[in-house]
Specification:
single chain; 15 helices; globular; binds iron/sulfur cluster; binds S-adenosylmethionine; alpha/beta
C-alpha cells in the first residue's frame, strides 16, 4: 500500500533552533506521506513554528492565523497547527481565540507529531500538547533526517536554568538538558555522509552542554568539539548561543587547538553596566566578559566576536547606556544583534516599575546600532586585499556567481563554477561591504603554492 502524498507547509519564525525544529517536524511527518511545499495555498497541513522572544509575538500569530483561516475554509481537510514558544506560553489563548486551529504543541512535544496526527484523524477535535519531555524528544529525534546541505544545524542542548530577568526561554523551553554525546556524534556523522561540510551546534546555552563521553568520562563542549573534528568531511565547526558564564578553559583551548573550530564566537553580554547586569540576573560582570574575551584572543588571535545587546532594560540609566557603548568600543565586534527591551509577560523584569520611556529606548538602541554598524563595516573593509578560505555553499545571486562564508561568517560573493559548492577554497577579497564581501578565486597554481 502506498502512503498518500500530502503537502506540508511550515513557517519558521525566530531563532536557528526553530529552523532546526521545523526540519525535524518535516522529517517526522515524511513517513506519513507529507512532503514540504513553499506556500500555504493548497497545503494539507500548515504549521506556524512561532517565537516568543520579543514583542508582538502573539499579535503576529493571530494576524497570520486570521489569513490562514480563510485559506482553511477554502481547502477541505487542511490541518492548521501552532507550534513553538508562543504555543507553549499561550496554548489556552490560542484555543480560545482561534478555535479553527487543529493542533497546538510546544517545542518540547513536537516529537509526538505522528501520534497527534493520528489522534486528530480518529477524533474530530483539537489536540493540545505542551508538556516538557526533552529527554524523550531527544530519543525520538535519532532517526533519519533529510539532508540539510553544505551547512547544517545540530541541536545538542535545550532549555535554560539561568532565568535572566527579561527572558521567556526558561518558561517556554523548560529546564536545561544536554543531548547524549553518542547521539550527537551519530547525527554529525549522518550529516557529513549527506554532504554537510560545516555543522553548527545549537542550544539556548550551547556551551553549558555536558555529558558522558564514549570513553565514560565527563565531557564538556570543548571535548565534544574535539571528537566532532575527527569526523571525516566536517571541515568547519561552530556553536551558538553561548553564555559568558559557561566559557570554560577547555572550550577556549579548543579554539586554539582544533583547526575545524572556526575563529568566530557569538557571546551575548546584553549590557556593559554591572548595575544592569545584576538587575538582569546575568550572573557575570562586564569585567568577567572582558577577561573571557582576552582569554579567547590569547588562544586564537584572529577570533572575531559577535554579541547581543538590550537597550533600555528596566532601571537602565544614561550612565549604564554609556557603559554599554564604552564596552562595545573596547571589544570591537565583527557583528552583533541589538534589541529594544520589550516586557515579556510572566518574567521578573516585566514586573519592575522603572521602565525606560519608549523614545529613550529608541534613541539608545539607535546609538548602539550605529556603533555596531560602523564596527562591522570596518571589520569587513579591513579584509580587502586579504586571501581567505571560503566554504562555498551554492550559487550566488547572479549567473556564474557562487555564495560562501569566510571563517568569520561573512557572506562572500565570488565568480566561480557551481562544482565548487561544498568545497573550501582560498579567495582574494576585492572589497568589503557593510554586510558582505566580494572576492575572486585564487588561481589553482597560486592556491597550491600557498
Ligand atoms: N541564551 C542566549 C543568551 O543568554 O544570551 C540568548 C537567548 S535569546 C533567544 C536571544 C536574545 O534575545 C538575547 O540574547 C537577548 O538579547 C534578546 N532578548 C531576550 N529577551 C528579550 C526581551 N525581553 N527584550 C529584548 N530582547 C530580548
Ligand atoms: Fe534567556 Fe538568559 Fe537563558 Fe539566555 S541565559 S536563554 S537570555 S534566560
Amino acid at each position: 500500500m502506498t502512503t498518500p502524498r500530502r503537502r506540508l507547509h511550515i513557517q519558521s519564525w525566530g531563532c536557528q533552533m526553530n529552523v532546526y525544529d521545523s526540519h525535524r517536524m518535516a522529517d517526522l511527518l515524511r513517513p506519513l506521506g507529507y512532503e514540504p511545499c513553499e506556500t500555504p495555498a493548497g497545503a494539507d497541513m500548515v504549521i506556524l513554528n512561532t517565537c516568543h522572544i520579543r514583542e508582538k509575538a502573539t499579535e503576529k500569530l493571530f494576524s497570520e492565523l486570521g489569513r490562514l483561516r480563510a485559506l482553511k475554509a477554502e481547502t477541505p481537510g487542511m490541518v492548521l497547527a501552532v507550534a513553538g514558544c508562543v504555543a507553549q506560553a499561550e496554548a489556552a489563548e490560542v484555543a480560545a481565540r482561534a478555535p479553527y486551529v487543529d493542533m497546538v504543541f510546544g517545542p518540547q512535544s513536537y516529537h509526538r507529531l505522528p501520534e497527534m496526527v493520528a489522534r486528530l484523524s480518529r477524533a474530530a477535535g483539537r489536540v493540545i500538547v505542551t508538556e516538557f519531555e526533552t529527554d524523550e524528544k531527544f530519543d525520538a529525534l535519532n532517526g533519519a533526517s533529510a539532508p540539510q546541505g553544505v551547512t547544517a544545524f545540530l541541536t545538542v542542548q535545550e532549555g535554560c536554568d539561568k532565568f535572566c530577568a527579561f527572558c521567556v526561554v526558561p518558561y517556554t523551553r523548560g529546564a536545561e538538558r544536554s543531548r547524549p554525546a553518542l547521539h550527537v556524534l551519530a547525527e554529525a556523522r549522518r550529516l557529513a555522509a549527506q554532504g554537510a561540510r560545516e555543522v553548527t551546534l545549537l542550544g539556548q546555552n550551547v556551551n553549558a552542554w555536558h555529558g558522558e563521553g564514549p570513553d565514560g568520562r565527563a565531557w564538556g563542549l570543548g571535548r565534544l568539539l574535539r571528537a566532532l573534528a575527527e569526523i571525516p568531511g566536517l571541515a568547519r565547526l561552530r556553536y551558538t548561543t553561548s553564555h559568558p558564564r559557561d566559557m570554560d578553559a577547555d572550550l577556549i583551548a579548543a579554539h586554539r587547538d582544533v583547526p575545524q573550530v572556526m575563529p568566530f564566537l557569538h557571546l551575548p553580554i546584553q549590557s556593559g553596566s554591572d548595575r544592569v547586569l545584576l538587575a538582569m540576573n546575568r550572573g557575570h560582570t562586564a569585567d568577567d566578559f572582558l577577561r573571557t574575551v582576552d582569554a579567547l584572543r590569547a588562544a586564537r588571535p584572529d577570533i572575531a566576536l559577535s554579541s547581543d545587546f538590550i537597550a533600555g532594560h528596566p532601571g537602565e540609566r544614561e550612565a549604564d547606556h554609556a557603559a554599554t557603548l564604552a564596552l562595545i568600543g573596547r571589544v570591537g565586534f565583527a557583528q552583533a544583534f541589538s534589541f529594544k527591551y520589550s516586557p515579556r509577560p510572566g518574567t521578573p523584569a516585566a514586573a519592575l516599575t522603572a521602565h525606560v520611556p519608549e523614545a529613550e529606548k529608541d534613541r539608545r538602541l539607535q546609538e548602539i546600532q550605529a556603533l555596531l554598524r560602523a564596527q562591522q563595516a570596518a571589520f569587513n573593509a579591513r579584509m580587502a586585499g586579504e586571501t581567505v578560505e571560503v566554504l562555498f555553499t551554492g550559487p550566488g545571486r547572479h549567473p556564474g556567481q557562487l555564495s560562501g562564508r569566510t571563517p568569520w561568517l561573512q557572506p562572500v560573493h565570488c565568480d566561480g563554477p557551481p562544482s565548487l559548492a561544498g568545497h573550501v577554497r582560498p579567495v582574494r577579497i576585492v572589497a568589503g561591504h557593510p554586510n558582505s564581501l566580494s572576492a575572486h578565486l585564487v588561481p589553482e597554481p597560486e592556491a597550491a603554492a600557498a
